[in-house]
Write a structure and sequence with these properties.
The protein is mainly alpha-helical. The protein contains eight helices and two strands, in the order ββαααααααα. The chain folds into three domains: 13-63, no CATH class; 66-110, no CATH class; 130-167. The protein has a two-stranded antiparallel ribbon with strand order 1-2. The radius of gyration is 28 Å and the shape is elongated.
C-alpha cells in the first residue's frame, strides 16, 4: 500500500482514529509520518511507546472539526483546542463560551450533561419538571386531606406551606 501523503513510498504507519464517532484511517511512509510529528524511530527500527503517545498528541489536533479549532473564550482568549490538550479552562466565562462543546463532552463522559446526584444542603432546591411538580402536589394534597381528616392541624399547616413553596 502506498503512502497517502507522498504516494511514492510504501506505507508502514497505519493509524486509525475515532473522533466524534467518525473513524479515520491514515497510511503513511516513515518520512511523511515524521513530517507529521510521528517519527517513532522507524528509520532505525527501535522505538519507545512513550515517544509514540507523546508525538501523536499533536497530531490529533488535525482531526478536530474546524469550528472547534478556532473557537475561543471571549474573556480570556483560551482556544477550545488548548482546553482539549490540557483539560483546564482559563476562566469562569469559558463555561459559557464552550457551553455546547462542554455539554457534548459531559454527555459522552458521564452519560448526561445535568447533575443528578446529591445537592449541597445550603443550595437551592433542584428544579423539578412540570410532571414531577404535579405528582408532588397530588401527594401533598392527599397527605393534607388525611391530616385534616385526623384533625392533625399542625401537620396540615406544614403540608399547606410546603404546597405553597412547591407551587410558586
Amino acid at each position: 500500500m502506498l503512502c497517502e501523503e507522498c504516494r511514492e513510498k510504501s506505507a508502514v504507519v497505519f493509524l486509525k482514529l475515532a473522533v466524534n464517532n467518525k473513524v479515520t484511517e491514515l497510511h503513511l511512509c516513515p518520512a511523511c509520518a515524521a513530517k507529521k510529528g510521528m517519527g517513532f524511530g522507524l528509520e532505525t527500527g527501535a522505538f519507545n511507546i512513550s515517544d509514540i503517545v507523546g508525538n501523536m498528541s499533536g497530531y490529533f489536533k488535525d482531526f478536530l472539526p474546524v469550528e472547534k479549532k478556532t473557537l475561543r473564550c471571549g474573556a480570556c482568549g483560551l482556544k477550545y483546542s488548548e482546553f482539549k490538550e490540557t483539560g483546564r479552562l482559563g476562566c469562569p466565562d469559558c463555561y459559557a463560551g464552550f457551553e455546547e462543546q462542554l455539554t457534548e463532552l459531559m454527555t459522552r463522559i458521564h452519560g448526561a450533561s445535568r447533575h443528578s446526584g446529591r445537592v449541597y444542603r445550603g443550595g437551592p432546591a433542584p428544579k423539578l419538571s412540570k410532571a414531577e411538580t404535579a405528582r408532588r402536589l397530588e401527594e401533598l394534597r392527599a397527605a393534607l386531606k388525611d391530616a385534616v381528616a385526623k384533625e392533625d392541624f399542625e401537620a396540615a399547616a406544614r403540608l399547606r406551606d410546603e404546597m405553597k413553596r412547591s407551587d410558586g
